[in-house]
Amino acid sequence: MTTAAAPATHPLPADWRDFFALTKPRVMSLVIFTALCGMLAAPVRVDPILGFVAILCIAIGAGGSAALNQWWEADLDAKMKRTANRPIPAGRMDRTAARDFGVALSAGSVLVMGVAVGWLCAAILAFSIFYYAVIYTVWLKPRTPQNIVIGGGAGAFPPMIGWIAATGEITLMPVLLFAIIFFWTPPHFWALALFVETDYAAAGVPMMPVVAGHHSTRRQILIYAVLLLPLTLLPFWLGLAGWLYGVSALVLSGLFLLLALRVAVFRGNVADMDMRPEKRLFGYSVLYLFVLFAALVADRFLIG
Amino acid sequence: MQLPPDPETERKRIQRGRNRALGLILVGLVVLFYLITIAKMR
Asked: What is the mean pLDDT of residues A59-65?
């Protein structure tokens, strides 16, 4: 079919860059990294081709669920400064195209994972997509301030799938990797929510600072940071990782706790502050996860 | 002053970009399935 006959007033089709943006490439980079770390930290040698396919499928699955998330939340995104320029709210793409793109990526990634790596991995990948696109996006996010706590599970799947892709079985270590990201997510997102609160309030999203207030959110950030410290040390205590990981986890989680404490002790007027401790905790939390998982891999290769 | 691009030219440019991206994806899938087959046969 030719496009020459299309009327001049018809809106332009979406550019390939808009489809790429729909996959949330920055989130995808963290997904790829944690999945790769989960795979490399496993105590077995992975076929490089099948390992690459597994990581590719996890990344594409994450991209598909991100596209479905943006298809569903287009009206919400339009109300927030941070998300208003995404392809659908900015008017560069129609919603149907985003939905079809998301479904195609999700289905494609699960099928290829099943054929190439195994159906256990494919089933967990399918569930993680469903978890993010339906349980979190459609059900939890607009209904409860605990959305981030339960929704955090969606981002916790990649290292677990990476490990299972290598070993073929679910053991304690992939469950611990899942738990680490699960407990890391609330303080990470609530630190962000504290300094973009007005955006969430305008869009009517019941984020913790909007519903429970700053004081409660800060206290809960601290609780999760306290829980994260022993949790990240568990692989070392249980003999599943060596001293390099143990020392790294202690230092990194200790600093995380310290920054969370600075956020928690704030008692001043919110309007007067520059939110520096919150921004610092948010920035550090991203670095924290990268370094912690890198330490796990380094420990596996250097210490064994 | 730069004139805004002609909509028809812009449409063709976007369509060309999408066709190329789709072509690359299809070639990528062919290579991917070839590599998976090789890996599975080992």
From this structure: 97
Helices within chain A (DSSP H only): 16-22, 25-41, 48-72, 74-79, 95-116, 119-130, 147-167, 172-195, 197-203, 208-211, 213-237, 243-264, 276-298
Report the pLDDT value the prediction gives residue A80, as an integer from 0 to 100.
Answer: 87
Pick the closest to residue A208 from A161, A141, A271 (CA basis). A141
Q: What is the pLDDT of residues A162-194, one digit of tens each?
A: 999 999 999 999 999 999 999 999 999 999 888
B contact residues 6-35, partner A, Cβ 8 Å cutoff: 7-8, 10-12, 14-15, 17-18, 20-21, 32, 35
A8 touches chain B (CB under 8 A): yes
Among the partner residues B7, B17, B40, nearest to A16 by beta-carbon distance: B17
A85: distance to nearest CA of chain B, Å?
Answer: 19
The per-residue pLDDT for range A190-221, each reduced to its tens digit, is 998 888 777 777 777 888 888 888 889 999 99
